[in-house]
Amino acid sequence: MNVKKDFGTVYLEQNIKQDQFDYYGAIRSFMDSNGYNVESCDICSTSTEWIDNKVDVKFKFVHYSVPTMATEPYYLISFIEA
Q1: Per residue in 17-69, pLDDT tens?
Q2: Considering the entire predicted model, what is its pTM?
Q3: How many helices (H) and strands (E) does the chain have?
Q4: Which residue among 19, 26, 33, 71 has its CA within the 20 to 30 Å range from the CA of 41?
Q5: Sheet containing 3-12, strands listed edge to edge, beginning at the edge strand earlier in sequence
Q6: DSSP string, 34-54
Q7: First-to-last C-alpha distance (Å) of the chain
Q8: Is 37 exposed, middle or buried (0-12, 13-18, 19+ CB in 10 A)?
């Protein structure tokens, strides 16, 4: 899998439970706070790997003008409970 950027580990002050954690919201917040344009890009093609209080999320961050997400690279963020 083509990973364009691994953002490493992001510690969150909240419980990370697989059935409750909004990783889309966490990705959006992280990308926005790091200067990415979350208004013109979509988070898609997500896959998760859950391990205890940690989740690795691979996703595509695709600008609306891109005709297909198939050729876009993946990003990776690991969220962990602080």
Answers
A1: 898 999 999 999 999 999 999 999 999 999 999 998 899 999 999 999 998 88
A2: 0.90
A3: 1, 4
A4: 19
A5: 3-12, 74-81, 54-63, 41-51
A6: TT--SSSEEEEEEEEEEETTE
A7: 28
A8: exposed
